[in-house]
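Q: My labmate handed me this sequence with no annotations at all. I'd like to see what the chain might look like in three dimensions before we decide whether it's worth expressing. Could you predict it?
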Amino acid sequence: MSGHDHDHDHSHLSDTELRVRTLESLLTEKGYVDPDALNALIDTYEFKVGPRNGAKVVARAWTEPDYKNWLLTDATAAIAEMDFEGRQGEHMAVVENTAEIHNVVVCTLCSCYPWPVLGLPPVWYKSSPYRSRVVIDPRGVLEEFGTELSDDVEVRVWDSTSEMRYLVLPERPAGTDNLNAAELQELVTRDSMIGVRKALSANTEA
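A: Here is what I predict for the chain of 206 residues:
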């Protein structure tokens, strides 16, 4: 499942998204908005600023057992303690991936997403194919992202809503006992906090 497929069929867009697209087009035509600058800004929030917040949360949980316990029991408060709070992050829950359980997050109704810790949702997360297929065939969808799990691993799918948004605490990669929190952050990706991929291995560059 790729987030790089583009088409001109806007039938899947909500009224709000259509209005934003129209406004963006008008502002671009009048020279008020540089589309390249806008794309760079969106890219920054989707891949860098937001996910790096989440990576800090994960790395802290990996290195501080007390914080990890707090995160798993009261994620909203534990994340807010790191000053990562705000709209779309008012009600949070964190689910932990282990050797026996692999969690993956979806929003089946729209695109509820924890902005304070993950930034903007990727295109594929909002797409109808992902939202429907990950519920009925999670293993198949995970395999499309390159994540293959053994049959004895239980896959749990969590449906984010306006009342509760989920963040996956990825399983800490092997061979990282000597890494500090800053180094561990580089192994945590947006996709691993959604659950479609695992965290990067210690010998993999971010």
